[in-house]
């Protein structure tokens, strides 16, 4: 089937039908039938990360498949909800469409599009505040999802607090706080127990996330790229040793450091 032979609506309807068949109590797949919201949620998070990974690697040929896997998660949750009489896929699509229209009055309403990006951000936050009020979210930090990756959630919590003035003036102040938290971590390591050590380490990570926010860096993306760099360079160490018929455990730290530096220089 060529691209001209299909359309999005048809393919989405086909996907919904397939999911319904997989969940059919008599003729469906046993694994799919056994799943519930809680068991599928980790897969939903994993698929979102795989989308981000494909984008980070600029693997554009993989992206349609990864986005399809993420779409499947939405369809899976909607099918389970439909079976319980809670909502269905159409409700999900309608909810996000309505939200987009409501949040863009300068496009779908009577407001002028002639406004600065800064003003649009302020308007956006005002609109979201109205939405949160409708959900009985009264606190500044209400509605920041618990299931987010910890670094991402830290930044979102800090952004919320910053909106009401609870924030450091600039990166220099955050760097000073990092020095303070580092000293407290060293003290905990030397004189306190494992729980206190973990707490101080968490405080340091939280402030590092705040520094990323002030520097306009996505800490999750920065760490993903650091992970990729480490993987790339360590694999170069393994490849260099393999040429000699050896493995990392046959080497020592001094040699692997030298090979690391070679891999770094080659980049």
From TrEMBL:
Domain of life, per UniProt, equals Bacteria
Q: Which InterPro entries match?
A: MazG-like_dom (IPR004518), NTP-PPase_MazG-like_C (IPR048011), NTP-PPase_MazG-like_N (IPR048015), NTP_PyrPHydrolase_MazG (IPR011551)
Report the EC code(s) recorded for this entry.
3.6.1.8
Q: Which GO terms describe its molecular function?
A: ATP diphosphatase activity
Stretches with biased composition (Basic and acidic residues): 244-267
A Pfam family matched in the record: MazG
Keyword Lipid metabolism among UniProt keywords: no
Where is the NTP pyrophosphohydrolase MazG-like domain positioned along the sequence? Answer: 35-108, 175-233
CDD domains in alphabetical order: NTP-PPase_MazG_Cterm, NTP-PPase_MazG_Nterm
State the reactions this protein catalyses.
Answer: ATP + H2O = AMP + diphosphate + H(+)
List every stretch annotated Disordered: 243-267
Q: Which Gene3D superfamilies match?
A: MazG-like
Q: Which GO terms describe its biological process?
A: dATP catabolic process; dGTP catabolic process; dTTP catabolic process; dUTP catabolic process; response to stress; TTP catabolic process; UTP catabolic process
Q: Which UniProt keywords apply?
A: Hydrolase
Q: Which family does it belong to?
A: Belongs to the nucleoside triphosphate pyrophosphohydrolase family.
User: NCBIfam families of this UniProt entry?
Assistant: mazG, PRK09562.1
What is this protein's name?
Answer: Nucleoside triphosphate pyrophosphohydrolase
């Amino acid at each position: 089937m060529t691209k001209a032979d299909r359309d999005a609506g048809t393919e989405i309807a086909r996907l919904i039908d397939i999911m319904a068949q997989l969940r059919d109590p008599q003729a469906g797949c046993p694994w799919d039938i056994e799943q519930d919201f809680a068991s599928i949620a980790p897969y939903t998070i994993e698929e979102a990360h795989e989308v981000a990974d494909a984008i980070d690697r600029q693997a554009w040929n993989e992206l349609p498949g990864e986005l399809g896997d993420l779409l499947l998660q939405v369809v899976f949750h909607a099918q389970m909800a439909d079976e319980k009489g809670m909502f269905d896929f159409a409700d999900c699509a309608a909810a996000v469409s309505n939200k987009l229209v409501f949040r863009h009055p300068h496009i779908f309403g009577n407001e002028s599009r002639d406004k600065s990006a800064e003003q649009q951000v302020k308007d956006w936050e005002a609109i979201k505040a109205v939405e949160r009020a409708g959900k009985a979210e009264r606190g500044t930090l209400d509605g920041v999802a618990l299931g987010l990756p910890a670094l991402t959630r830290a930044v979102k919590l800090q952004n919320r607090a910053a909106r009401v003035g609870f924030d450091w003036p600039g990166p220099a102040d955050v760097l000073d706080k990092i020095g303070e938290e580092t000293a407290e971590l060293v003290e905990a390591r030397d004189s306190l127990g494992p729980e206190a050590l973990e707490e101080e380490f968490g405080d340091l990570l939280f402030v590092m996330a705040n520094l990323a926010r002030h520097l306009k860096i996505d800490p999750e993306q920065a760490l993903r790229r650091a992970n990729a760099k480490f993987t790339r360079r360590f694999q170069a160490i393994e490849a260099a040793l393999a040429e000699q018929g050896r493995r990392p455990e046959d080497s020592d730290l001094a040699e692997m450091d030298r090979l690391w530096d070679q891999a770094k220089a080659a980049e």
